[in-house]
Model the fold of this input.
Amino acid sequence: MLASLAPLRDDGSDTKAPRAWLVGWALAGVVLGTAFQLQQSGLWAWGLYLGIGLAGGLALGWRRRVPWLVAGVALAFSGTGLRAVALAGQGLAPALEGRDIAVVGRVASLPVMGLQGERFEFLVERASLAGQAVRLPARLLLGWYGGPQRDADRPGGWAVAHRSPGLVAGERWAFEVRLKRAHGSLNPHGFDRERWLWERGILATGYVRAGPRDPAPERLAQTWRHPVDRARQRVAEAMGERLGDSRAAGVLAALAVGEQSAIVGLGKRVVR
Done:
């Protein structure tokens, strides 16, 4: 009987982990690999990340726990690093900061309303400076702000020559913008705004040039893109129309569709 069991021990098959366990080890490696890459103080060359990823892929050929753990670490480290290198290469050129750039693109998020205007994400389709095509980051965070003028609707109100007409997710627009590279302050244990922008693929921020001497912004079309954000916007607007300008309206909109821009005062504490 003992002799009949010898081949089972010799072929090493009993050391192979079940596939479900292997997947678990690989997923643990993915978490570790992503965390390791995020701790890097600087990015490596893309070729080095690619080599690490290829080595991780080869490690999947062994049905053992440790190789699959290593593979998960390598593949996640490589993928996260390659994405970071790609995003870094799309940053705003220093020469374009503070310049008036004509852009065409579409509203790519639920516009956030504020006291001074709207804030929204914008996907750039094409851009030009003084008639010459320029390259911009694909995704921008823009504001359409007002300024104090005599024709404001109410004392202390805000108005501009070309007011925001109420942006809708998915709309295509043409206007001029003024941009700067994405930056943000970081306080200990506080919100890291620059990392938040980076995670969303936003490498430049700015605002729409809508003053009296600027070209008038032009709405080009409503597209079928971003249907979820468009639906959220319709729900939030309908709730605002029914409930009026009240703290309850902002709280209910935040709970229903995640729209927190209308929350004021103590309503923010209620949502938190």
Observations:
- The chain has three domains: 16-88, 94-225, 226-272.
- The beta strands are 100-107, 112-114, 117-129, 132-133, 139-145, 171-181, 202-208, 218-222.
- The first helix runs from residue 2 to 10.
